[in-house]
Design brief:
Elements: E1 2-5, H1 6-22, H2 26-38, H3 42-61, E2 71-78, E3 82-85, H4 88-102, E4 110-111, E5 118-119, E6 127-132, E7 139-145, H5 147-152, E8 154-158, H6 163-178, E9 186-194, H7 198-206, H8 218-232, E10 247-257, E11 262-269, E12 274-279
Parallel strand pairs: 1-3, 2-6, 9-10
Antiparallel strand pairs: 2-7, 4-5, 7-12, 8-11, 9-11
Length: 280
């Protein structure tokens, strides 16, 4: 039996929260640079140049990539035979509060969402996703998601006969209506199957997948390429100023579902895909 100290995990969460807020991952930088070369609009290329310059300055100065430092989700996947010693929820919340203060992160979380909407002042509590792996590896990840792209995300319960064409139509409709307000170029996480509550979790978790590694499922990989191409034909473009690059990547996660349903969720993320996963 392996036992992990939640105090140690808290220190790792604090470090990850600071890092994802200030350093755009290398795979995202590479995707932006690659798609910049294919962008046909001079204005679009200029927008991507500014995004890349901003990322470079944020890393150099150690300041947030965006004024909307987002809502933080902490992903802990426990390997087989691994247990926790201590209060992980409490340690993760305290870690985020420290990171918010140390990194001068904008407090964006409010309590009583339909009432007073009082700011918690330290971005707490983080959202927690704790799961169990079939293997021995334990991983810890953090994703920070801003309000603009979160507002563009959607879930739908499609009829089972809709199949992939129905899923694709749903995604394109959402991006066409909401994508301009989500700071494109976008990264899309798609969750298919599971249930009404599971599909959004799959979609959000899909955003953790590297953009520079192919999906291990060949059919899902083909659909991801099809999705990126279809979204880019919408013409929204970088900064929603028109162009041929609206999306720089898509990742699909699937799960079995009831034979009478086809749950699908779209997790929209802006060009500032702030996430990192480490192995413990």
């Amino acid at each position: 039996m392996r036992v992990l100290s939640t105090r140690r995990l808290g220190r790792l969460v604090e470090s990850l929260c600071e890092e994802v807020s200030t350093e755009l991952p290398a795979d995202v930088v590479e995707a932006l640079s690659r798609y910049r070369r294919s962008e046909e609009s001079p204005t679009g290329r200029n927008v991507i140049d500014m995004i890349l310059e901003n990322a470079g300055e944020a890393r150099r100065l150690g300041v947030p990539l965006c004024q909307d430092t987002g809502v933080f989700t902490v992903y802990l996947t426990l390997g087989a035979g691994t247990a926790l010693d201590g209060d992980f929820a409490g340690e993760a919340s305290a870690a985020l509060a420290r990171a918010t203060e140390r990194g001068s992160l904008r407090p964006s979380v409010v309590r009583d969402p339909t009432g007073g909407r009082e700011n918690t002042c330290d971005n707490t509590p983080p959202l927690l996703e704790v799961s169990v792996s079939r293997g021995d590896e334990t991983t810890l990840g953090v994703l920070a998601k801003g309000g603009g792209c979160e507002m563009a995300s959607r879930v739908a319960m499609l009829p089972p006969g809709a199949g992939w064409p129905g899923v694709l139509d749903f995604i394109l409709e959402v991006v066409e209506r909401r994508g301009a307000g989500a700071c494109p170029p976008l990264v899309l996480g798609v969750g298919i199957g599971g249930s009404f509550d599971a599909a959004p979790k799959l979609a959000k978790r899909a955003l953790l997948a590297p953009l520079d590694e192919p999906n291990p499922d060949p059919e899902a990989s083909r659909r991801e390429e099809e999705l990126v191409g279809a979204v880019n034909r919408l013409g929204i473009g970088p900064g929603a100023l028109g162009g041929t690059v609206t999306c720089i990547g898509a990742r699909i996660l699937e799960a079995p579902c009831h034979m009478a349903t086809l749950p699908v969720a779209l997790g929209v993320n802006c060009h500032s895909l702030r996430r990192k996963v480490i192995t413990i």
